[in-house]
C-alpha cells in the first residue's frame, strides 16, 4: 500500500525541482554567492553549455545570493528532491556527508598542484561518489582558494593573536574545532549575515579567501587581512539524487560534461579574481 504513495511523492518532488514544460527539462540550481563571483559565472557558463549541447531540450535556472536559502537549507532541499542542484562549501557538506571533513583540515595540501591532483584524481572522484549515500550526487569541485583570517581591530599573525576574539566560522565542526585549538572563540554565522555581524561587533573577525573578502566588501569593516592560507576548502557542485534518477542517460551526460567544463573555466576565473582581490585590498 505504501509503494504508490511513495512513487507519487517522488515524482511530484522531482517535478517541483525540475519544473517547466514536458518537452524541456528544467533543473533549478541555487547557491549563496553574488552574481559577480567566479562560481556563479561558471554556473552561467555551464547553463549555456547544457542549453547548446541539448539543443534547448534541457535548461538550468540559477538562483544566486541565498534566494532559496543558506547552504545548509539548500542541501536539505536537495535531499528531499524539492531543489535540483546547489553549490556548497565542503565545510558545510561535512555535516551531511562526514568523509568531507578531511578537506577542512589545515595545511593538508603541499601546494595548489597537489590539491588539484587529489581533487581531480581518483580520490576526489571517490569522495564525490560517496555523497550518493546521503541522497546527493557529486558532479565536480570548484576552486575556493585558500582561507585566511581577517579581523576588525588587529592583524592575526600568530595563534596568540586569536585569543579573546570571536571568529566567524562556517557551520563546520572541523572549522570550529580548529579556531578553538588556535585560541579563538568560533561563532558560526551564515555568510549573508556576516557583514552586519562584523559591523555590529557580534564577531571580531572571520576567515575566507581573498575574492570572497573583497566581493563581500568585508574590508570596509575588517581592515586587517592576514594571508596565512590555513585551509584550502573547495566548493562542491551537487545534484539531488531524486532529480538525478529522474533524468535520462543523455540528460545526465549533458549535465556532467557541462559541469566538468565549468569547473575548468571557473579555475581560470578564480585565479583572475584572486589576483584582482589582492591588488584591490
Q: How would you classify the helix and strand content by structural class?
A: alpha/beta
Any idea of the CATH topology of the largest domain? D-Maltodextrin-Binding Protein, domain 2
Spatial gap, N to C terminus = 62 Å
Beta-strand portion reads: 15-25%
Number of strands: 10
Brief digest:
This protein has 281 residues and is α/β, with parallel strands linked by helices. The chain has helices spanning 2-18, 38-54, 71-80, 90-93, 112-119, 122-130, 173-181, 194-199, 210-215, 241-246, 249-280, and strands at residues 25-30, 58-63, 85-89, 136-142, 147-151, 166-169, 185-188, 205-208, 224-231, 235-240.
Q: Could you characterize what this model shows?
A:
α2 runs antiparallel to α11. This protein folds into 2 domains: 2-144 and 234-280, Bacterial extracellular solute-binding protein, family 7 (D-Maltodextrin-Binding Protein, domain 2, 3-Layer(aba) Sandwich); 147-231, D-Maltodextrin-Binding Protein, domain 2, CATH 3.40.190.10. α2 links the parallel β1 and β2 (58-63). The N and C termini lie far apart (62 Å). Helix content is 44%, strand content 20%. The longest helix is centred in the C-terminal third of the chain and has 32 residues, at 249-280. The chain is an alpha/beta fold and 281 residues long. It is globular and about 60 Å long. Residues 1-15 have low confidence and may be disordered. The strands form 3 sheets. A 5-stranded mixed sheet has the order 2-1-3-10-4, with helices on both faces. Strands 8-5-9 form a 3-stranded antiparallel sheet. The chain has a two-stranded parallel ribbon with strand order 6-7.
Amino acid at each position: 500500500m505504501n509503494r504508490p504513495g511513495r512513487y507519487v511523492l517522488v515524482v511530484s518532488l522531482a517535478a517541483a525541482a525540475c519544473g517547466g514544460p514536458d518537452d524541456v527539462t528544467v533543473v533549478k540550481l541555487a547557491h549563496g554567492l553574488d552574481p559577480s563571483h567566479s562560481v556563479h559565472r561558471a554556473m552561467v557558463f555551464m547553463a549555456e553549455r547544457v542549453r547548446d549541447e541539448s539543443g534547448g531540450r534541457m535548461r538550468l535556472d540559477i538562483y544566486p545570493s541565498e534566494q532559496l536559502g543558506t547552504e545548509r537549507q539548500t542541501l536539505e532541499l536537495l535531499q528531499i528532491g524539492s531543489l535540483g542542484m546547489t553549490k556548497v562549501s565542503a565545510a558545510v557538506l561535512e555535516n551531511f556527508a562526514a568523509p568531507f571533513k578531511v578537506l577542512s583540515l589545515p595545511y593538508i595540501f603541499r601546494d595548489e598542484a597537489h590539491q588539484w591532483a587529489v581533487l581531480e584524481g581518483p580520490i576526489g572522484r571517490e569522495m564525490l561518489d560517496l555523497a550518493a549515500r546521503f541522497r546527493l550526487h557529486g558532479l565536480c569541485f570548484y576552486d575556493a582558494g585558500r582561507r585566511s583570517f581577517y579581523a576588525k581591530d588587529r592583524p592575526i599573525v600568530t595563534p596568540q593573536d586569536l585569543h579573546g576574539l570571536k571568529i566567524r566560522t562556517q557551520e563546520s565542526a572541523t572549522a570550529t574545532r580548529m579556531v578553538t585549538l588556535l585560541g579563538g572563540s568560533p561563532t558560526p554565522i551564515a555568510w549573508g549575515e556576516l557583514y552586519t555581524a562584523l559591523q555590529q561587533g557580534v564577531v571580531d573577525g572571520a576567515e575566507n579567501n581573498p575574492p570572497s573578502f573583497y566581493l563581500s566588501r568585508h574590508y570596509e569593516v575588517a581592515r586587517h587581512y592576514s594571508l596565512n592560507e590555513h585551509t584550502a576548502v573547495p566548493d562542491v557542485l551537487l545534484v539531488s539524487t531524486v532529480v538525478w534518477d529522474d533524468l535520462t542517460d543523455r540528460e545526465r551526460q549533458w549535465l556532467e560534461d557541462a559541469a566538468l567544463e565549468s569547473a575548468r573555466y571557473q579555475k581560470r576565473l578564480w585565479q583572475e579574481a584572486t589576483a584582482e582581490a589582492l591588488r584591490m585590498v
